[in-house]
Amino acid sequence: xxxxxxxxxxxxxxxxxxxxxxxxxxxxxxxxxxxxxxxxxxxxxxxxxxxxxxxxxxxxxxxxxxxxxxxxxxxxxxxxxxxxxxxxxxxxxxxxxxxxxxxxxxxxxxxxxxxxxxxxxxxxxxxxxxxxxxxxxxxxxxxxxxxxxxxxxxxxxxxxxxxxxxxxxxxxxxxxxxxxxxxxxxxxxxxxxxxxxxxxxxxxxxxxxxxxxxxxxxxxxxxxxxxxxxxxxxxxxxxxxxxxxxxxxxxxxxxxxxxxxxxxxxxxxxxxxxxxxxxxxxxxxxxxxxxxxxxx
Length: 296
Known about the structure:
- The chain is mainly α.
- It has helices spanning 6-29, 35-58, 60-77, 87-111, 118-129, 143-153, 172-185, 190-207, 217-227, 245-250, 261-280.
- It is built from eleven helices and no strands.
- The termini are far apart.
């Protein structure tokens, strides 16, 4: 038996996506028509979506067993080893859950007769997770293919540079959104989520909204260099809140007016949690934020 590879993940997801779309269509065809029936049907769909999110929040382990059972059947039929601790397996399982959540959106689309096709739903999943599962539906060069070409064109002899992943991680902004959606499911407080969101969005403001898989220690080092020159709580300061990062850096603030090392390290710890999540999702090879604590 062989190990789970990227092409295997793509093929399994293609099959599962098409099955879930067809199932969504069958559910719609089996629904009674008429305004009252349609309203009741939409309520049922909303309840199903709500219940699933509740299960993911309160009984995730039990639900993962069901997902694992489904994946096991797929892998065995393809003579692929079941390695639950591998990055590929964990990523595949995450995408199965993403797919089951999206199915409720598709059922609703069928129910309210938006006129969207199966191709549209396939593109929905592909555009959200940028996996290039259905390149025939896009006129552009596949994202995976373009990244692999870019990797070849940008090879350097610098051993500190990490290779690009063969599958794009997606923009930082889209991954931050997915990261916090997961935190909500896990029951983290809204107050803590919003506090962490400020830190992650500031990281984008400093290094740009680049592909997650291209964040390396170079970008992290630049982020720290900039942070050392910024005042604390700049967003809440009437003096600094309307200034851009570049404008603040041009002020050449004295050390007394810039952030403390402890403050920057606190930001690092939050970014490192995000980096660890990226590794678990298979979006990063290593966590670029780890072991970058700034010393006094």
